[in-house]
Write a structure and sequence with these properties.
Elements lengths: L3 E6 L5 H10 L4 E7 L6 H6 L4 E3 L8 H8 L4 E3 L16 E3 L4 H12 L2 H15 L4 H17 L19
Parallel strand pairs: 1-2, 3-4, 4-5
Helix pairs in contact: 3-5
């Protein structure tokens, strides 16, 4: 069996526990803990990867999924990320899986062992992330402001002193 190389980028409260788990699986895994990455380092880190795993327990969106898709990577993501099922669509440009280690291992193995599937998912990732750009974001903000300005609003008037609720001291 071939040893798998895993690059973990970022740091946090789970880092020490992950390092212990990595040592326990050293015969099968070569785990590199990069730690915090500066913005300038990210393109090189994404280029060094074949697939991207985002096993978040909670993330409103997960901008790292956008970055991975722009780098042409297939993504395995948890349903707890807002990008799941919108930017990363199951079996289209990656996999959306609950946080089950066996499922993630199976999905990763299928991508790592099938160059054609990995490349197809990576190409789709690039296509699917294209609409998520600054111009589209600006248009969305402009549309939201226009909608807010054109929506009927009910003006609230100040209550008269006689209508105000009086509370005993």
């Amino acid at each position: 069996m071939r040893k798998i190389r895993l690059l973990i980028v970022g740091s946090g409260t789970s880092e020490a526990a992950l390092q212990l788990r990595a040592k326990a699986h050293a015969a099968k895994l070569e785990v590199v803990f990069h730690g915090f990455a500066k913005q300038a380092e990210l393109p090189g880190l994404y280029r060094s990867a074949k697939i991207f795993l985002f096993p978040t327990e909670a993330d409103v969106w997960g901008v790292v999924a956008n970055e991975a898709c722009a780098a042409g990577l297939p993504v395995i993501i948890s349903p707890h990320a807002g990008a799941a099922d919108e930017l990363v669509v199951d079996r289209k440009n990656g996999f959306v899986r609950t946080l089950d280690v066996e499922q993630w291992a199976d999905c990763a193995a299928s991508l790592l062992s099938n160059d054609g599937l990995r490349e197809a998912y990576g190409q789709r990732s690039r296509m699917m992330v294209e609409p998520y750009n600054f111009d589209q974001s600006a248009r969305g903000i402009i549309e939201a402001v226009r909608a807010a300005l054109n929506s009927p609003t009910k003006k609230l008037s100040k209550p008269k002193l006689s209508q105000a609720v009086r509370r005993p001291l």
